[in-house]
Amino acid sequence: MSRNTKDKRTAAELPPELTQARRFGKTRTAQSRALLEDYVELISDLLATGGEARPTDVARRLGVSHATAIKTITRLKREGLATGLPYRGVFLTETGHALAERMRTRHRLVVNLLVALGVPTEIAEADAEGIEHHVSDATLKAFSQFLQISASTRASRKS
Amino acid sequence: MSRNTKDKRTAAELPPELTQARRFGKTRTAQSRALLEDYVELISDLLATGGEARPTDVARRLGVSHATAIKTITRLKREGLATGLPYRGVFLTETGHALAERMRTRHRLVVNLLVALGVPTEIAEADAEGIEHHVSDATLKAFSQFLQISASTRASRKS
DNA sequence: ACCAAATTGTAGACAAGGCTACATTACAAG
DNA sequence: CTTGTAATGTAGCCTTGTCTACAATTTGGT
Ligand SMILES: [Mn+2]
Ligand SMILES: [Mn+2]
Ligand SMILES: [Mn+2]
Ligand SMILES: [Mn+2]
Fold it and tell me: Taking a C-beta distance cutoff of 8 angstroms, is the pair B146, B113 a contact?
């Protein structure tokens, strides 16, 4: 029990199969969070624009049945991301709101990057809806730096 | 029945909620294909390097139990992507092989793009494992063009 | 105040993807 | 050729995410 109590070794020295397994595991986790993230972002959107988020609207925007939406919203509540009383619409908790903000930023950054690389807006928007859930903070930062640089390059070329 | 038999109208003129619903739907589809894509790519890998793809190896590389791997492999067979007899390892059909090649290309391109944007390799590799399944052909092309351009830019700067 | 329509909720089914525990088969060492 | 071990397969359970069908509630128009 003396060595490796925590095992903080990073990829390089580990068996390659373990590294790969870890990557796949991360992807599975991201997968399972993705749906919640989309719901929260969407609810936040509805709340911001219309002042309320009704399950029906959520369902229509997501393209699922209202029963499905309600069930997932129940899960949101169970996981402490949303609140709301029966027949009274959905609201976000502090955590939910924070997550929504994070997702909104991600979403926009991913779309902007794709567009900057020449992807048509509509396609960028569609791809981003999936990609956003798999972009780590490090990658997100890289995106944002690239966007800044390419913006300033464009600016300086104008002179 | 005269109008809109096929409804080929593209996003612009459609109700925005429908557009959004369509995007989410695409993402859901991609999600459900993602696992098969990873399996097929991995099997192809094992086949290429070791000559055989045993369920146990697949399981270990993916970080799931062998029972899970076997079940998913059954699904691969059911969907015409893989073959193989009991106790005899897994092989890929023509379609399976083609999909594996497509995924390998995607995977590499996504990793290369991320690295080109300054993401550390290990993180790029991890993120790509999720992103690759949500990158449309149009976006993929944009990635590859960006990589070409940035490569040639680097080359010409050397002169 | 009433009623019809919209919204919300509930029930029950199904497939996918994960797990553990147990059963079977193959293989290699002796 | 026996036998122990590794690999493979099977069974049964759980959760998530989807649906349809039906029930209950709320709400807006008269
Ligand atoms: Mn999304
Ligand atoms: Mn989004
Ligand atoms: Mn992958
Ligand atoms: Mn991959």
Answer: yes
State the total domains in chain A: 1
Residue range of the domain that includes B79: 17-158
pLDDT (average), residues A28-37: 97
- Tokens for A32? 């399972």
- Give the pLDDT confidence of A81-109 residue by residue, as tens digits: 999 999 999 999 999 999 999 999 999 99
Taking an 8 Å cut-off on Cβ atoms, the answer to whether A122 and B11 are in contact is yes
pLDDT digits (tens, 9 = 90+) for B1-29: 334 334 445 545 778 889 999 999 999 99
Question: Angle at Cα A57 formed by Cα A121 and Cα A71, nearest 5°?
Answer: 110
Joined together, the tokens standing for residue B23 give 């995007």
Q: How many Å apart are B26 CA and D18 C1'? A: 15
Q: Is the C-beta atom of A67 closer than 7 angstroms to strand D? A: yes
Strand C positions closer than 7 A to protein CB: 6-12, 16-21, 25-26
pLDDT number for residue B17? 87
Q: What is the CATH number of the domain that holds B94?
A: 1.10.10.10
Please report, as a single letter, which amino acid is at residue A45: D
Please report residues of A whose CB lies closer than 8 A to that of B120. 138
Q: Is A2 inside a domain boundary?
A: no
Residue A3 resides in a domain: no
Query: Nearest residue to nucleotide C25 when comparing alpha carbons to its C1'?
Result: B87
| Whether B122 and A11 lie within 8 Å, measured CB to CB | yes
Would residue A137 count as lying in a domain? Answer: yes
* Residues A128, A135 contacting (CB under 8 angstroms): no
Strand C atom within 7 Å of A75 CB: no
- Contact assessment for residue A31 and residue B31, using Cβ atoms and an 8 Å cutoff: yes
Q: How close is the nearest chain B Cα to the Cα of A94, in Å? A: 25
Asked if A143 lies within 8 A of B117 by C-beta distance, the reply is yes
